Amino acid sequence: MQVTPLYIQDQWANIDWMQYLCLWEQLPADMKRVAELVGVQERYLARAVRNAGAGIGGRQSATQARTAAIHRRFYSAMALHELINEVPLPTVVRKYGCTRGVLQSLQQSAATFAGLVVVVVVNLLIKHLQNRHVEIQGRRTHKAHLVHQQRPSITKQ
After folding, report:
1. Nearest CA to 68 among 106, 102, 109, 40?
2. Which residues, other chains included, contact 100 with Cβ-Cβ below 8 Å and sequence gap of 6+?
3. What is the four-CA torsion angle of 120, 124, 125, 127, rounded to 10 degrees?
4. What tens digit of pLDDT does each residue of 24-57 get?
5. Residue 84 CB: number of other CB atoms within 10 A?
6. Which residue among 6, 7, 49, 150 is least packed, with the fewest CB closer than 10 Å?
7. Best CA proximity match to 13, nearest among 76, 80, 82
8. If DSSP codes are grouped into helix, strand and coil, which group holds residue 53?
9. What are the boundaries of each domain within the chain?
């Protein structure tokens, strides 16, 4: 499952790959681990720096396009992470080499996506709770029926 909108990376016209590599090198070990788990590779960043972005975004195979999208999406996620941690907007603009408009659009897209995720999760939770309620109700009815059958009848003799 994606945790950032699928096409969020398309909002970045140009990524400064050298800056991305520098940010990568400064990431704490736990954040690097997350990046690696989602598919970010240091060798890809180094190759992008070496090629100065050539071939990235141009004619690519499906695999290359997917790899580029993963790296762009993570770059977007890093910028969002900064904003969530209340780093001032001008600082994030300088750090990621983008405009305020790009970051504001990124925030809006992420907020919309998060809202949709909340709706889906709430609906799943409600459905799960409804199923559990039906299951528990069924058990109660069954137990009540058993108790009623097992109760000795009191008859006058």
Report:
1. 40
2. 89, 90, 93
3. 140
4. 999 999 999 999 999 999 999 999 998 875 545 5
5. 11
6. 150
7. 76
8. coil
9. 8-115
